[in-house]
DNA sequence: AAAAGCTTCAACCGCTACGCG
DNA sequence: CCGCGTAGCGGTTGAAGCTTT
């Protein structure tokens, strides 16, 4: 499972999303005390930038995998599980963050209709998205919206949905049209706020680069701004092992 | 201005699957 | 088979931010 060379090389040409740095702005806080009651050596709670750097650095030099040993060897006072989660959901260079596009929403709908809550299976079809992110997206946005839709249906107020559907020529099988209906609703519902959030992203961050050429699987969403890690952390930090 | 309520999402937990000796 | 270690999954939690009152 150790993939030293591949992960190292992919890492060095990596990019990080805006929100990665934004996170530290938001989370400019002390990590919550974070030790479990039975094992004072194990830290819990939000990761600090220092911990992230240690993990990134370690993986850049040794590759990922065998997380328990990695956790020990890197000197992090975290469980292997925690390291794995942090890496896969957040630090991995190809993690794509930010708003979920309409295309992705549609895909999530379709795949969820097919497979249900198989988040990781669904995530495999959305490059750069993590199961956690999709799960959160579904729970916070879709389920809420479904409830609203349910309520309005109960009030016999579902005629405008089919109107919308007609207007957008989304005519397919009944199941797909349901998916399309939902997606359209989500689109109109969520796009503005997402866009606002994105545009209000800090502009004081380092050089924002267009990664469309270097990140092959990041080309779906043109809303996204990425920059190379070199813009943020000097490379010597990563090679200092 | 501030308190209350709501939303978001990173991180944790418990569990299962799998591989290996 | 059994036991152990590891990887991975899906559900849940709770802190922080945001919005409403």
UniProtKB/TrEMBL annotation:
Q: Where in the cell is it found?
A: Nucleus
| Alphabetized UniProt keyword annotations | DNA-binding, Nucleus, Repeat, Transcription, Transcription regulation
Main localization (coarse): nucleus
Q: Where is the HTH myb-type domain?
A: 39-91, 92-146
GO molecular-function terms, A-Z: DNA-binding transcription factor activity; promoter-specific chromatin binding; sequence-specific DNA binding
Gene Ontology cellular component terms for the protein in this record = nucleus
Q: Tell me what organism the protein belongs to.
A: Phaseolus vulgaris (Kidney bean)
User: Which Gene Ontology terms describe the biological processes this protein takes part in?
Assistant: gibberellic acid mediated signaling pathway; jasmonic acid mediated signaling pathway; stamen filament development
Entry keyword Nucleus: yes
Q: InterPro entries, from UniProt? A: EOBI/EOBII-like_plant, Homeodomain-like_sf, Myb_dom, SANT/Myb
**Start and end residues of each Myb-like domain:** 39-91, 92-142
Query: Which named protein is this?
Result: Uncharacterized protein
Q: Which PROSITE patterns match?
A: HTH_MYB (PS51294), MYB_LIKE (PS50090)
- Bias (Low complexity): 151-162
Superkingdom per UniProt: Eukaryota
Cite the residue spans of the region called Disordered: 145-177
The subunit field of the Swiss-Prot or TrEMBL record says:
Interacts (via N-terminus) with TIFY10A/JAZ1, TIFY5A/JAZ8 AND TIFY3A/JAZ11.
PANTHER family linked to this entry: MYB TRANSCRIPTION FACTOR-RELATED-RELATED, TRANSCRIPTION FACTOR MYB24
